Amino acid sequence: MVGCSIRTLPGSWFPCSSLIGNDGRMVDSGSDSIVVNAAAARCIAVATDFARYPEWAKDVKEAIVLERDSESRATMVEYRASALGRSTHFTLRYDYSQLPARLSWQMVDGDIMRTIVGSYQFTESGATTRIDYGLEIELVLPLPGFVKRRAEKRILSTLKELKARIES
Q1: Domain that holds residue 70
Q2: Whole-angstrom Cα distance, residue 93 to residue 76?
């Protein structure tokens, strides 16, 4: 399942292609879900090993952990990634307060984005785990619809790359 959606409340997504942010700007969002043949603990371990993202996430070229919490979990990570035919830099702050059910993040700095807000939700069922992925992005400059759709497909394909890494 791949598609655009609007997040109205934490964990609530409704189909749409974009929404208006508090400042009147367009914010694009997408969501996807996948079932992984692994326990939630394995999924969380791979999803939070940010320094290894360049090994499996095609568009992530570099991930540097800048800060860790008292449990040695990465709380701030700087990324260099390919996006829209160019290299982009952004820094995300991670929130572990809802684990093991949910890992969320938000951008603290970026060059071509004003906002990034996202989350993974983990729902274990027997030997499998459903991962729900949600992402909202506001770019500095507006893009034509066909470019946004192509970028959305590429961003959401990261979930398939995560599944492959977890199951390897």
Answers
A1: 2-167
A2: 4
